[in-house]
Design goal:
Two copies of one chain form a homodimer. Chain A contains four helices and four strands; from the N terminus they run E-H-H-E-E-H-E-H. Chains A, B: This is Putative monooxygenase ydhR.
Chain lengths: 100, 100
């Protein structure tokens, strides 16, 4: 059963293409995380926030990633990490074309 | 350029299959919203929360949906709606297999 992890935190850039260059190695590392199905990278320069939406194959993998990633973000100087883990309602999501 | 809308709110059920039955008509309506690419339906019975992660084709469609949906949730008795809209960093997301 897939689980969704939503993460956001205060962030001051870089943004857009510069963010993509700065975080390419990190994205390649994340692609190999156990149980990761996909991650959408999010950013909002006007609000000064960034984050990610992740789909994992099960709850233990989502929880283990969140614990590791929270520590990593703090090591980058991120002061607070907002995170929630949800089950996915697959029947409703499929009606709305969700890529599960 | 795709925009991601994350929404969650206090929710007391129904959950799982009962939630799917109760919200099937709503999901079919949401599938036809202007600019919606997909929605993942989320739920967490232990935390008493539910929500959705949406991908829209542009910012005006995401903002218009959020305004409408917030009013709808309030009409359902939802006391508070947590919502954030983000740009998607497409280069990083594609490295992590994101379905954009």
């Amino acid at each position: 059963m897939p689980y969704l992890l939503q993460v956001d935190f205060p962030y001051q850039g870089p943004w857009g293409k510069e963010m993509a260059s700065a975080s390419r190695d990190l994205a390649e590392s994340i692609a190999g995380e156990p149980g990761l199905i996909w991650k959408v990278w999010t950013e909002n320069q006007a609000m000064g926030e960034a984050g990610g939406i992740y789909l994992f194959d099960d709850l233990p993998n989502a929880e283990a990633y969140l614990a590791m990633h929270s520590q990593r973000l703090k090591s980058f100087g991120v002061p607070v990490v907002n995170a929630k883990i949800f089950q996915v309602n697959e029947a409703l999501s499929r009606i709305d074309r969700a890529p599960l």
